[in-house]
Amino acid sequence: MTTTPSRRRLRLGAFATAAGSNVAAWRHHATPSDAPVNLEHLKTIARTAEAGKLDYLFIADSAYITKDSTPYFLSRFEPLTILSALSAVTERIGLVGTFTTSYSEPFTTARQLASLDKLSGGRAGWNAVTSALEGLGRNHGQEKLMEHGLRYKLAEEYIEVVKGLWDSWEDDAFVRNKETGRYADLDKMHTLNYVGEFFKVQGPLNIERSPQGRPIVFQAGGSDEGKSLAAREADAIFSRHSDPKLAAEFAKDIRARARQFGRRPEEILIFPSITPIVGSTEEEALRRYEETSAYLDIDTAVKYLSRYFSFFDFGRYPLDEPLPELGEIGKDSFKSTAELYLKMAREEKLTLRQLALRASTPKGDFVGTPEQIADRIEQRFESGDIDGYIVSGHVQPEGIRDFVEQVVPILQKRGLFRTEYEADTLRGNLGLAYPDNRYKSERERQA
Predict the structure, then answer these.
(1) Three-state secondary structure along 94-146?
(2) Which CATH number is associated with domain 11-289+363-446?
(3) Which of 323, 343, 365, 385 is a Cys-bridge partner for 251, taking CB atoms 3.0 to 4.6 Å apart?
(4) Which of 2, 7, 1 lies closest to 382, judged by CA?
(5) How far apart (Å, rounded) are the C-alpha atoms in residues 304 and 348?
(6) In sequence order, which residues have a C-beta less than 8 Å from that of residue 376 and are 6 or more positions away?
(7) Would the annotation count 152 as a binding residue?
(8) DSSP type of residue 434
(9) Is 367 helix (H, G, I), strand (E, B) or coil?
(10) Three-state SS for 174?
(11) 370: how many CB neighbours lie within 10 A of its CB?
(12) How much of the chain is helix, strand and coil, in % rounded to 5?
């Protein structure tokens, strides 16, 4: 396929699933068996993604496990620790981590992320999640999972507080003049004094702004409440919809909601997830998928599926019969993901075995030669319904390496993707506007 250079620039992130998107990928011969806690392995993924000029590296997280958890959940770094370590061995790639709004304090999260942002020179991002596992609540002194809608109401206030704290200092507040002895202009320090339904936070934050102003806010909710939160607060969205029709519907919905909140739709970037598997021929790529899928046993696959349904016991159902109606199972857990899997099972008449394997060994439409994968990326990007993709390797580091070395050069040659970073910050490389400090803006309006 030949193209003319696009006026829009494709954005790409790397999903740092340490072993791979296949939940049994740790068994792959080229993947460290301790991949989630292997610093050298994670450094390799980060450096590979940066060598490909990808926009950001994403670390997902959840702080609840059981004996039924799939292997790579059992021991893994929490995001701030590993992203801080990776900031020291990278220079331009963004560093995005998951931090919960349901089981943490906004001042702590604001300070941690602002510290990472300053430490990395303006490369931090926050995937704000409401958390959807009842056991996670029990790890934080709560017996019952908060109702889905209430979690998002709390999250809205939480993000509002964090953003307010990130404006505690104006950009030029720290003068550090050794001659005069003046360290900071305290007139440019601002106290939040927030009082809301869920939080009461005084401030100010005890760290200055970074070169990108404040971290980039990502959101991944696909429910009605999640989409409204993203349209109101997020700079970028992780979407589950790589299918062209669903992607178009999702984008239209988000853009309409953004306008209702007084935002311009182009202020929000949409990133579906893909799992490219590259082969010299389509047959080789499919064979590689089958080889990695063979590592997975059905019991592990079913356990993985159950996580999205509050660890619902699927053992009561036959593996090779169509999945029965499950009613509202999962409505207060991973609501949109549970609904997506149930819709998939219903429309395609999938058995429990088929659905579990589909969830735990994702394949999708991006299995083929480098040219075929690049073609599909280009076609869907040019539709205007997405801004790029977050790339998940089927096994790591093989998956991200193959994509960077074989697919990215084709996208660059077609003028779709950068050959060099445009900026030092994540915000700059994503093409997002610099956020003015609210207090400075208010003072200038009054002047």
Answers:
(1) EEEEEEECCCCCHHHHHHHHHHHHHHCCCCEEEEEECCCCHHHHHCCCCCCCC
(2) 3.20.20.30
(3) 385
(4) 7
(5) 20
(6) 365, 366
(7) yes
(8) P
(9) strand
(10) coil
(11) 21
(12) 45, 10, 45
Q: How confident is the model at residue 303 (pLDDT cuts 50, 70, 90)?
A: confident
Instruction: Say if residue 273 carries a ligand binding annotation.
Output: no
Distances (CA, A) of 27 to 32, 60, 102, 138: 8, 21, 34, 31
C-alpha span between 99 and 62 (Å, rounded): 9
310 has a pLDDT exceeding 80: no
**Matching residue, tokens 């395609």:** 348
Nearest of 58, 426, 87, 46 to residue 238 by alpha carbon? 58
Residue 223 assigned as binding residue:
yes
Read off the pLDDT of residues 387-425 as tens digits, 9 standing for 90 and up: 999 999 999 999 999 999 999 999 999 999 999 999 999
Q: What residue ranges of the chain are covered by domains with CATH 3.20.20.30?
A: 11-289+363-446
Q: What is the DSSP letter of 177?
A: B
Residues 6+ positions from 343 with CB-CB distance below 8 Å: none
User: pTM to 2 decimals?
Assistant: 0.89
User: Which residues lie closer than 8 Å to 195 by C-beta, 6 or more apart?
Assistant: none
Query: 């994540």: which residue's tokens?
Result: 426
Q: What are phi and psi of 102, to 5 degrees?
A: -95, -30
